[in-house]
User: Fold this.
Amino acid sequence: MELLFERFLSESRGEVARIDIDLPSGDEREKVIQHVYERYGQLGAAMTANVISYRGRSAAREVGKALGFAEEQLARISGLVGHWEWRGENDTMARHFEQAGFDARHPRIAHYLDLCMRMQNLPRHLGQHSGGMVICAGC
Assistant:
């Protein structure tokens, strides 16, 4: 075939061709994106996106803000959550909080811990992949 992107079009790959091209950021990237939209139209081109989920530290900060923790407490408590990693049956987030001087049985702390754990992996926001695009046959 002797095409520039021939390695992406091999029938032996057993999948649809995917071509990744790295572009400079800024105005040049935006020019390419606009060109693709103009060339393939509204139904033939789209930006890609991914779902950003809550993880330890982001959940800890959001829950702490919602429950009215002071900034000093919030920094200390979210730092604990961000570094917590389960290492065994007796290794719990509540235990780490107690070691840091928080009473995990206190209703506010217990509620905080519960909400942090429940928020894990919930969608936080939709992120647009920098310049990632899908091009297809328009409908």
The longest strand covers residues 123-135. The helical segments are 27-40, 56-66, 71-83, 93-99, 107-119. Residues 55-120 form one domain.
